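Sample entry (364 residues):
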Amino acid sequence: MKEAANEKRYRRILEFISHFAIFFLLIGFVITCCIVLFLHAAQNAGVVYTEENIQFAAKITFANVLILSLLCTAIDTVRRYVTIGRPVKQIVEATEKVVHGDFSVRIDKFKLTGSETGIPVVVDHLNRMIEELSSMETLRTDFIANVSHELKSPLAVMQNYGTLLQQTDLPEEKRMEYAKAITDACRGLASMVTNILKLNKLENQTIYPEAKAYDLGEQLCECLIGFEDAWEKKGLEIDTDIEENIFVKSDPELLSLVWNNLFSNAIKFTDPGGSVSLRLKSEGAYAVIGVSDTGCGISQEAGKHIFEKFYQGDTSHATKGNGLGLALVKRVIDIAGGDIGVSSEIGKGSTFTVKLRRETGGKT
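Predicted structure, serialized as tokens:
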């Protein structure tokens, strides 16, 4: 440790001496040129200098060169410390704190006149990077907390009903009821884990879309028919208005995740006897898909967060989902280069609208 400090001190001394030597030579050269020009002009004017006067002037000039060199070296040292040394020191201290997990640190911005590049730009970008890292750390912490919370519910259900099943005098009807509850909890837990894995793969870009042109109307119909049992069980009215020959170029497997989630939510949150509608039409270069329901609706505040992980706008439906479906939908739509939005009114239902760029040339 002591050797490192001594080496650093020697390095600073050598740096100061080298700067002094540079300024000494530079100032000596400039003054020498000026004196030569002055003597040449004086000689042409007929001025005569004695040897004694020249020797005295040379000593004064040498002293001036030394003083000016020291002065310039000191000024340059201060300038370098203010403009480079101090900012770099703060940058190093800040990055060390970030390395140790402190994302609250921010580097003071150095406002230098006319400085649009260099240290101020580096500081600005580092602050932005630290802010992003802080946001990512917050998201990671929230994600772990939410996952832990969501895992507790089905595990608690399985544990409680498993304990009840151990009763020796349990009626067959109750045994089947408890077994079904455990099965449903396991199914929900498996669904959540599957969605977490899918979302993680999509966010880390380990799933790459295999884009191909296909008929979007056909895919929407196939996905909707897959929920026939669910809507018939609730007695829902299904209304469709699908424009023909609308093609998109994307990964059909990924987009099927979107339609399945939207249809599942629409049917799930619509009361028996309600209605669910599907719309597909072309608007210029885009295909516009609308999935509407007459369910409970979403508040304006909940609509702002509906695509966030684990967010559930209606706590009364907390047992029906894990808040990952719409986050998965949003990520897929982003990958497909599309856009998704929601309009809703409490007690009257919701409409999810998806816009995708369509293929005007048809199927290939």
